[in-house]
C-alpha cells in the first residue's frame, strides 16, 4: 500500500510538471527533441519564517514610505535583481524568472504602498453622508 501511495504521488508530480509546460515544450517532448530531467532541490539554509536582518530593515523602511517614489528609493539600495526577487518572495509577492528588476520593484511597491493607499482610501469613504442624502429626498 505504501508503494502504491508513492507511485500515485509521483504520477501527480509528473502530470503537474507536464501541465506547466507550454505548447512548444510539449511538442518538443513528443517529438523526442527534448527530455525531462531530474534535479534535486537544495533546502534553504535558513529556517523558514526567519528573515535576514536586512530584509526586516527594508520592510520597516517600506512601511514608513508615504508614496511610491520613496519606496522606489528604498528598493534601489538592494544590490542585485536576485536579492530583490528573494525579498519579494519573503513578502509573498509572485516573481517569475523572466521579471526584470523594474518589474519586481513595481510589484513590491504595488503590494506595499498600493495596499496602504487602498486601505486609506477605503477608510476615508463617507458612507453615512451618501445615505443621509438619499433618504432626505
Write a concise synopsis of the structure shown:
Helix content is 66%, strand content 0%.
Notes on the protein architecture:
- The chain has 137 residues and is mainly α.
- It has 2 domains: 2-31; 53-123, no CATH class.
- It is 66% helix and 0% strand.
- The chain contains 7 helices and no strands.
- Helix 4 packs antiparallel against helix 6.
- The longest helix has 23 residues, at 101-123.
- It is elongated, with a radius of gyration of 23 Å.
- The model is unreliable at 44-50 (pLDDT under 50).
Q: Secondary-structure map with pairings?
A:
Blueprint: H1 2-19, H2 23-31, H3 53-64, H4 68-75, H5 81-90, H6 101-123, H7 127-136
Helix pairs in contact: 4-6, 5-6
Amino acid at each position: 500500500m505504501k508503494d502504491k501511495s508513492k507511485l500515485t504521488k509521483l504520477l501527480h508530480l509528473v502530470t503537474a510538471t507536464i501541465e506547466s509546460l507550454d505548447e512548444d515544450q510539449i511538442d518538443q517532448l513528443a517529438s523526442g527533441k527534448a527530455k525531462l530531467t531530474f534535479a534535486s532541490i537544495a533546502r534553504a539554509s535558513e529556517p523558514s519564517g526567519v528573515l535576514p536582518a536586512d530584509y526586516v530593515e527594508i520592510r520597516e523602511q517600506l512601511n514608513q514610505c508615504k508614496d511610491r517614489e520613496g519606496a522606489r528609493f528604498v528598493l534601489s539600495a538592494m544590490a542585485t535583481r536576485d536579492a530583490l526577487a528573494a525579498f519579494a518572495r519573503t513578502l509573498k509577492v509572485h516573481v517569475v524568472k523572466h521579471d526584470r528588476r523594474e518589474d519586481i520593484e513595481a510589484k513590491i511597491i504595488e503590494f506595499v504602498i498600493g495596499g496602504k493607499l487602498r486601505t486609506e482610501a477605503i477608510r476615508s469613504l463617507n458612507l453615512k453622508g451618501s445615505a443621509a442624502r438619499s433618504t432626505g429626498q
